[in-house]
Amino acid sequence: MFEIGLADWTLDRNPGSRTDAWTFGDALLRTGLTPSLEIQVGWTMLGHVRERDRSTGEVNSRTRTGDVTLALRQNLNNPDGSGLSVALMPYATLPLGGGGIGAGDWGAGLIVPASFDLGALSLGLTPHVDAAVDGDGDGRHLAYGSVVGVGFNLSGDVSMAAEVSLTRDRDPGGRTTEALAGLSAGWQPDANSQWDVGVNAGLNRNSPDIELYFGFARRF
Fold this sequence. Notes:
The protein is mainly β. The protein has one domain (2-218): monomeric porin ompg (Porin, Beta Barrel). The protein contains no helices and 14 strands. The termini are close together. The mean pLDDT is 95.
């Protein structure tokens, strides 16, 4: 399966500055190695960040490629997604992106995706623990959190999902808790492809104000 975020815009405002971040071509390639094990390779093709100082009007911007992510996903129960499905997904990020777009150092973590099919609804829980890269791009620290969501079908080819996520980040430069609420919709024109659009909104001062994204997925 090939998944690509065609465009993503994130706005983050605080009293002293405004930051607009765009990514284009946030790609993920997934392929099965066994009936229950898959390998994933992700790469952000292009990122652009624009920061404006509200007091001076000074603007700084940078455009670079992003980092590469490698992951394995081992399904432990119901790989087809029926009933209760649980998986383990260790991952690592390689610091191949340009300065200001890439993290600047390697990172790693473990994600535990779980879902429960209730027929008309599906419930999802995605806890994670990470060796996240420090904000200064040198070294790692502990971060952890989870995404909780519910998905449902509006019709045979249109689905929607609502999610809430919390992440505790223990960066040495300042510990924060990010809280987001999201709503997304997917349209399947055929059995092997899907178009996605969504929005995330920050729920506290440590979170970006808003994120809009648009993507496509194709199964081969």
